[in-house]
């Protein structure tokens, strides 16, 4: 068991619920449909990775893989949150960095799973 990964997952999950509620209630009338969709994408990916981190932690995968997923998710989702709220389009250039870190993290999970035979 990797308690660090489980803690990461719990933190992302709790924040994801709070941000999802904030988006649904406080931002619904303040943002355009496109901005709200960006915000919701950030929440969705944050929740996917929160659940993944709980599973990764329960399976005992490395903290490196969990950290890549956490950092990737923070960069990916946070850039979408700020983009949605501020409307500053250049922030969209940061989002793919988070996505690449997530992909690398998933690759590490795959490698570790195959290595454990």
Automatic annotation (TrEMBL):
Kindly indicate whether the keyword Membrane belongs to this entry: yes
GO CC terms: plasma membrane
Annotated family: Belongs to the UPF0382 family.
Entry's localization field: Membrane
Q: What is its main location?
A: membrane
InterPro entries xref list: DUF423
Q: Can you tell which superkingdom this protein's organism belongs to?
A: Bacteria
Tell me what topology the record assigns in the membrane: Multi-pass membrane protein
Which keywords belong to this entry? Membrane, Transmembrane, Transmembrane helix
Q: Which protein are we looking at?
A: Uncharacterized membrane protein YgdD (TMEM256/DUF423 family)
Q: Which organism is it from?
A: Deinobacterium chartae
> Which stretches are transmembrane?
44-61, 68-91, 97-114
Lineage of the species this protein comes from: Bacteria, Thermotogati, Deinococcota, Deinococci, Deinococcales
